[in-house]
Amino acid sequence: MTEPLVQLWLAVLLALMPRASAGRLEPVARAVVEAATSDGERATLVAISLHETGLGRAGVPFGLSCCWRLGMPLADVARRALAIVRRCPRGVAGGLGLYHHGRRCRADRYAHQEMRTRSRVLAHLAAARRRAAP
């Protein structure tokens, strides 16, 4: 079941970043699928990645910079990011605020930008599912 889901998220990433190669985005798609338990969480991770690294431009995939310094797999770094976002009982926007400044669950301007990106990611996911449907 994991591989079709990875391919679906790879299609989403390629739609979001058409100039990026599938080889560059496949590890990100795999990490997103391994780390998250829902499409909403996966979309949140993609939004974080797009904003933190400029994924699809010149950034390092997944961007949570400790990944490269600590030699951690992308999925482990993604799990750490989600653990922070999940701590906030006020929802994803508040969780992203906590992720950004680490003090409290308060959605900041940057969290609202990421939430708009998250919505865009979910729209691309719906379109990819429609294209994949028989």
Q: What distance lies between the first and last C-alpha atoms, to the nearest angstrom?
A: 17 Å
Model regions low in confidence, pLDDT < 50 over at least 5 residues:
56-62
Gyration radius, in Å: 14 Å
| Series of secondary-structure elements, N-terminal to C-terminal | HHHHHHH
If you average the pLDDT, what whole number results? 83
Concise synopsis of the structure shown:
This protein is an all-alpha fold and 134 residues long. 72% of the residues lie in helices and 0% in strands.
Notes on the protein architecture:
The chain has 134 residues and is mostly helical. The protein has one domain. Helix content is 72%, strand content 0%. It has seven helices and no strands. The protein has helices at 2-16, 22-35, 39-53, 66-70, 74-86, 92-101, 109-132. Helix 1 packs across helix 7. The protein is globular. The two termini are 17 Å apart. Mean pLDDT is 83; it is low at 56-62.
Features of the shown structure:
7 helices, 134 residues, 0% strand, mainly alpha
Helix and strand arrangement:
Layout: H1 2-16, H2 22-35, H3 39-53, H4 66-70, H5 74-86, H6 92-101, H7 109-132
Helix pairs in contact: 1-2, 1-7, 2-3, 2-5, 3-7, 5-6, 6-7
